[in-house]
Amino acid sequence: MSEPPETGASEIGGVHIKYLHHCPRQLWLYARGYRPEQRSDLVAFGEVVDDTTFTRRRDVDLGEAKIDWVTTGAVVHETKSSRAPSEAHAAQVRHYCLLLERRGVAVRGGIVHYPLVRRTIDVPWDKDARAQAELDEARAREVIAADTTPARLPRARCRGCSYLDYCWGD
């Protein structure tokens, strides 16, 4: 594996935070350029859901992160192809709120959309959410900077992960 990348405050993106919550090993590998997601049918499906849902919105590209869209009043929106809410999804939205706030935007909160089950989850943005986002960012930096690969999760938790072959291949 290659050396860990230098990660400044503005270089931690939403994917880093999502992977931190899903699997620190996945984050560590991703940060070193291992990207099997490009060959994943589940990732391709998620991109189709994203491209065909809420088609009137425009992505907000921050460089290190790409927010699905932000509505008037600075509400961050994220679309997920998953059928079940996840803490990783809310953490990703909180991170986007933090990035926007650092750019001077008065963020009100966020919403995670699950169009396949027609459900939304509100993600509050307050001092506790900010503190959690900052903690997640610091934890992501620690994982990325580690000299060794984090332990793999129990195999049952890896179902559907595009890193499965790397972690569990024989």
Automatic annotation (TrEMBL):
This is Dna2/Cas4 domain-containing protein. Residues 14-168 form the DUF83 domain. InterPro entries: Dna2/Cas4_DUF83, PDDEXK-like_dom_sf. Transmembrane segments: none annotated.
